[in-house]
Amino acid sequence: MSGLLGRKLGMTHKFNEDGRFVPVTVIEAGPCFVIQKKANSIQVGFGKIADRRLARPQSGVFKKISVEPQAFIKEIKVDKPQEYNIGQAIKVDIFKEGDFVDVTGVSIGKGFQGGVKRWHWSGGPKSHGSMSHRRVGSIGASSDPSRVFKNTHMPGHMGNSRITVQNLRVVSVDSENNMLSVKGSVAGHKNSYVIIRKAKKRGDINALKAEAAAREAEKKQSKPKGKKNIKKK
């Protein structure tokens, strides 16, 4: 299994073996239930929801597979979907300490914002008499090109967008309480739903350390021995 659904609970800190301060995000990860199997993926659900809040077709699907209604449903790619059973519970123990994960969430919405806050503009003159402290100002020349270029930074809607934070290291896994702690921050407000996947760009930190140690050993073995300097009489 390469991923799991969960809920962001908030941030705290831990101390590692060296006594260093590590900021972590705590995620309630799983259990997720398999709802449907497809060619290269499985559909899983997370979080309980009242049956009265679902449409009849959705409610019928959960009754047919004998699974409690799930609030958050997503598809996750897997190598062999046939190895999973409908209604099977997938728990947080698919991850272990030292793994790297990519966490996807929806960032906090901030509504309509000006360019200074949205794009970190420096702003206009701040001296007495200026009337354009935080205003837009000129956005293009008049005669040439006689238009405004696309993707020009302007005031507008800020936040509430899908963001994936990559290569977050798993600090601890609590299988009993379905808690996962990752180093760093995750997009979204407290109690927002997130998707946790195994990192595409990095593997197990222990395996990476073993590979690095093996490379260093090979370099030392292959390094030619230096000639001894013979002093001339």
UniProtKB/TrEMBL annotation:
UniProt keyword Ribosomal protein, yes or no: yes
One GO CC term, this protein: cytosolic large ribosomal subunit
Record-linked InterPro entries: Ribosomal_uL3 (IPR000597), Ribosomal_uL3_bac/org-type (IPR019927), Ribosomal_uL3_CS (IPR019926), Transl_B-barrel_sf (IPR009000)
Disordered: annotated segments: 121-146
Keyword tags: Ribonucleoprotein, Ribosomal protein, RNA-binding, rRNA-binding
GO MF entry, a single one: rRNA binding
Pfam families: Ribosomal_L3 (PF00297)
Stretches assigned to coiled coil: none
Protein's GO biological process: translation
Keyword Ribosomal protein: yes
Matches recorded under PROSITE patterns: RIBOSOMAL_L3
Description of how the protein assembles with itself and partners: Part of the 50S ribosomal subunit. Forms a cluster with proteins L14 and L19.
Biological function: One of the primary rRNA binding proteins, it binds directly near the 3'-end of the 23S rRNA, where it nucleates assembly of the 50S subunit.
Protein family per UniProt: Belongs to the universal ribosomal protein uL3 family.
UniProt-recorded name of the protein: Large ribosomal subunit protein uL3
